Amino acid sequence: MEHQTQHSLSDIIKHLPLLQNYAHKLLILEKLECVIKKHLDPEFAKHCRVANLQNGILILTTTSVVWNHKLRFQKVDLLRKLRSEKKWCFIKSIKNIVQVSLLYSLKSTSQKTNKNDSFRLSTESSECIIKCADQIAHLNLSQALYRLARHTRFYNKSSSFVVDD
Length: 165
Fold this sequence. Notes:
The protein is mainly alpha-helical. It has 2 domains: 10-114, DnaA, N-terminal domain (GMP Synthetase, Chain A, domain 3); 120-155, no CATH class. 52% of the residues lie in helices and 12% in strands. It is built from 7 helices and 3 strands. It has helices spanning 9-14, 17-39, 42-45, 65-83, 100-108, 123-135, 139-149, and strands at 48-54, 57-62, 93-98. It has a 3-stranded mixed β-sheet with strand order 1-2-3. Helix 6 packs antiparallel against helix 7 (139-149). The longest helix is centred in the first third of the chain and has 23 residues, at 17-39. The protein is elongated and about 50 Å long.
């Protein structure tokens, strides 16, 4: 009989520096999202999300051009409020972009969607997941990550990774 060892996600992450970095960055982005939501009007906050924080540039996404336009007028004040907090004083600027798929993903969390209409990962995210899966010795977890990586917008069935479903 085959013996299976169960590992918690935190145990697996401890052994993979790449995943540790992503998990740490995700925690920072989540904390920043909470801070930003606190400084925005609740209705506006529903249409604005933290996308990234890179080299001191905070990237925010909005669900439409209208919300993006409103964010342009609030950026200076929001940046001033963030810089007033010691933890976020390193933020140099805010860049805002429209991400229509964000609106779709917000709606899909409250509605049942067709499998073909579901949200897809970016190619970069998929490649990152594949790199992580390549480093994992635990067969079930690595196969699950490969399956997840297939959810890219540009998935090619002739890709180099193979998963037994």
